[in-house]
Amino acid sequence: MNETESAIIGAAKIDEPWALVESFATFKREHPDDVNRGMDEVVERLRKHGVEVTVHEPQLYLSLPGAARVEADGVTFRAKPPAYSVDARGGLTGELVYIGANQADDIDTIFDKKLDDTGTVAERVNGKIVISEGYASPGLVAQFEELGAIGVIGINPGVDIHWGICTSVWGTPDLDDLPRKPTVVSVAVNNPDGQKLIEIAKQGGTVTLFTEMEEGWFASKLPEVFIKGSEEPEKYVFLHGHLDSWDVGVGDNAVGDATMLEIARILWANRDKLKRSVRIAWWPGHSTGRYAGSTWFADEFALDLDENCVVQINCDSPGCRWASEFINLSSMSESDALVGDIVKEISGKTAECERPHRAGDYSFNNIGISSFFMLSSTMPTALREEKGYYAVGGCGANIAWHTENDTLEIADPDNLLRDIKIYALGVVRVANAETLPFDWRATADEFAATVEAYQNAAGSRFDLGPSKDAVASLKGTLDKFYADVASGQIPARLANQVIQDLARILVPINFTREVRFRHDPALTVPPLPAIHPASELDFHEKNGTFGFARTQLVRGQNRLVAALRQAERHVELLTA
């Protein structure tokens, strides 16, 4: 760290953030009224330190789960409905059908579809209530709804039942999204009860689902801090995380809220040391609106984000119990080296980065913004296995995630202070970098590996040669660009404009299917999704859809190659 970084990071303390964690551990933040109470406390604490805060008040479309139960054979089973389940206070009765599936083994499969081949189960599912392994998530519910199920029961992996959300719509639906809003009753049960219900299904039994839901528009508060830089105040680093939770949600995400509070405090006090600005926001509607708060912000400030945001950094579940490692860190390839350096300097640990998931509040991919971090530190894999913990989507891998057990004991003050410093260093390093620290050569290498993998899967059935050539050509141009930047032939301000502009082209082509400024569903987006069907040609040959897949590949390759050529041309035109 340089002198400025050391001074700012050294100012981080645990007192104020831990006080917020302790306070948030005393009240639930599910209903918008309670979320707004939490927002008010954050604002009060910021203003106590002289930090200027703007409080936006969006109207968000949310789904608030209430009570639920499953009745079968005269027995009542405990259940939780996910947000966006259909209300069934009067009960929904139907024949129960069991469709086996694998439990999630990472955050991607928590939210994704469960069945690769649905043709063999469609007739069994239609008009029935389906029970299957998994969280009551978008992939599980949407897939069975498409097959004609009238209800879905997700069997959670352990003895606890996890809250969740079952819509695949990202944020508040627009007119095009509305057809994807769930129309079935869905609940989650724990594993022991799930096994009993499977036996009832195997005997041809029926069940009745009861759910209490409240759905509609809710007034929400959304605090934003804008800390103006001294040299390029219009450009900014964007740090954000969600404040609403399930129950008191200490590990997900009171600790993240506290992290952003402390970073806002220390950066405001040291704002004269920032070259670029820093923007910090606390989101409502994460849990009950499928990232409704961050999506609202992405929509309302899209053109400003497009013009001025140099990176977005998501803050979720830092500083949790037993979280000593930095594995499975979300980072786009161009940010990997930066993330590795930050983690090593603060913790002494090696960061293991991975492709960001279609989860968290990554609501800015369709604008095209470089990104790093979502979940933070986590417990070692060996410790998780020793404890018999299954995959969850936060809390440092503690299975208290999305349950009543996510209480104060899930947070660790020493780990939290360490992670505050990691996030703070990431923000400051980008804000003060002479040249933005994003290496698009690494992204080009990722693209080359993706194209090669897809070509190997496709074999002679489809030629991805144009994609391969376009990636190689872009890589050559980028090699020259970064060499010229290093030698001083390209001034830093021009280099930074190129680096930011490349994000607007290359992030969407790698992380989205929708056009820019629209939001993809909350389902996994594979690398270079336009040409991903090349990896599935065996499936399409088997199912008689090869010709359609080939047509999609032709169109997808056209999109990809055009984007890569645009990126290369942009570098050449601006640096000629």
Describe the structure in your own words.
The chain is an alpha/beta fold. The chain has 3 domains: about 5-60 and about 220-430, Zn peptidases (Aminopeptidase, 3-Layer(aba) Sandwich), CATH 3.40.630.10; about 65-215, Glucose Oxidase, domain 1 (3-Layer(bba) Sandwich); about 440-575, Transcription Elongation Factor S-II, Chain A, CATH 1.20.930. About 40% of the residues lie in helices and about 15% in strands. The chain has helices at about 5-10, 15-25, 30-50, 105-110, 120-125, 140-145, 190-200, 250-270, 290-300, 300-310, 335-345, 380-385, 415-430, 440-460, 465-485, 490-510, 535-540, 545-575, and strands at about 55, 60-70, 75-80, 90-100, 130-135, 150-155, 185-190, 205-220, 220-225, 230-240, 275-285, 310-315, 330, 355, 370. The strands form 3 sheets. A 7-stranded mixed β-sheet has the order 3-2-8-4-5-6-7, sandwiched between helices. The protein has a 6-stranded mixed β-sheet with strand order 1-9-11-10-12-15. The chain has a two-stranded parallel ribbon with strand order 13-14. The longest helix is centred in the C-terminal third of the chain and has 30 residues, at about 545-575. The two termini are about 35 Å apart.
CATH architecture of the largest domain: 3-Layer(aba) Sandwich
* DSSP, total strands: 15
Tally the helices: what do you get?
18
CATH fold assignment of the largest domain: Aminopeptidase
Q: Strand sequence of the main sheet, in spatial order? A: 3-2-8-4-5-6-7
The structural domain count equals: 3
* CA radius of gyration: 24 Å
Measure the end-to-end span. 34 Å
Q: How does the major sheet shape up?
A: 7 strands, mixed
Strand content range: 15-25%
Mean pLDDT: 95
- The CATH fourth-level homologous superfamily of the largest domain: Zn peptidases
